[in-house]
Design goal:
The protein is mainly alpha-helical. It is built from 9 helices and no strands. About 65% of the residues lie in helices and about 0% in strands. Helix 4 packs across helix 5 and helix 6 runs antiparallel to helix 7.
Amino acid sequence: MSSKRLLPTQTTLEMLSPSSIAAYATRYALRVQPFLCLCKETSNPYKQFVLDIHDSLNAIISGPEAESASLNADELLSYALQIPEDEVTPKTKTAAISSAHAFKSTAYIANDFLTEGFDSAVKAIENANLIICEMNCPMAPALIDFEFLKELRHGDPINYFFDCGDSGPLGELWHGNTPDWFLDAQKIYAKNIALWKKEVLQ
């Protein structure tokens, strides 16, 4: 099955509220986030980038924080697009671009910049999907997310954001079908995040 067939079309994404589009993109990015710590080399700027993405990707952005979040998202995306090829694996760079676009989608939608936010959501999904398809992962979790978000109706769709992780209203990231590769990569990710935080604080 081609990766193109698995991607949501513009028409189907527009069935979701703006904040739900951001949530859908974030869920895609979270599924490939562990690849951020599978690097050939690890420079200090890259460590800082990963830590910033770790803190920002699933952030719940309120109105007063939206402008600064957008600026931060632009900086993180600019860095992700320019990560040297000799520093990371192709999957790692793709995961970095997906994660940065997902954060930008949330930040821009929080600012009511819907066109730019939508564009970044699509790019976050496209990049994550490249990895997901290469790893032969089932798409059922994403379909479950979509159906939930399509029915979601809570207050102002621009301002309503929520935790997109396992503990949020969408439930487990993989809905009971967590791939072995994700579990293995997640262990490395958690270990490196803790280590890199200590190193950055020194």
